[in-house]
Write a structure and sequence with these properties.
Radius of gyration: 26 Å
Helix content: 25-40%
Strand order of the largest sheet: 2-1-3
Shape: elongated
Structural class: alpha+beta
Number of strands: 3
Oligomer: single chain
Order of helices and strands: EEHHEHH
Length: 137
């Protein structure tokens, strides 16, 4: 029985303040697409998926393991940390880090100053010989 991970675009808020964005389920082999459609329509779903859909969340396929069993699905649910197994969350994290790095480089470049004693490009250095720019061949 394949195991699948759904990622909701609208997280739910638990009473303890934690957010719930994932649902881990299983289906019969060859039945993943129809099961996913059932979830998206809020039919035949667990209350948590129904609540995600009712709040306007889109259900994205976060991951899929065709060879895992229901026992594996139960173990994964007990262990938690589903965002670490979710490809949607992993891509979002990479994009977040890229944006942070890009902002850092952009801010660094805009505030960077050249020391007043730095030689001008292609001007004679201390030896009186102009520095040549290297070009890739």
């Amino acid at each position: 029985m394949p195991v699948y991970l759904l990622h909701s675009t609208v997280p739910l808020q638990r009473a303890n303040g934690q957010t719930v964005r994932h649902y881990l389920g299983y289906c019969e082999p060859g039945n993943l697409l129809s099961r996913w459609e059932q979830h998206k329509k809020g039919r035949g779903s667990t209350p948590v998926v129904q609540a995600m859909v009712a709040r306007g969340g889109r259900l994205l396929m976060g991951n899929y393991w065709p060879t895992l069993t229901r026992t594996d699905e139960r173990r994964m649910k007990r262990n938690g940390h589903l965002s670490g197994r979710c490809l949607v969350c992993q891509v979002r994290e990479v994009l977040r880090r890229f944006d942070a790095l890009h902002s850092l480089v952009k801010n660094s470049a805009s505030t960077s100053t050249v020391p007043s004693n730095a030689p001008e490009p292609n001007s004679p250095g201390p030896s009186g010989v102009a520095a040549r720019a290297r070009t890739a061949g």
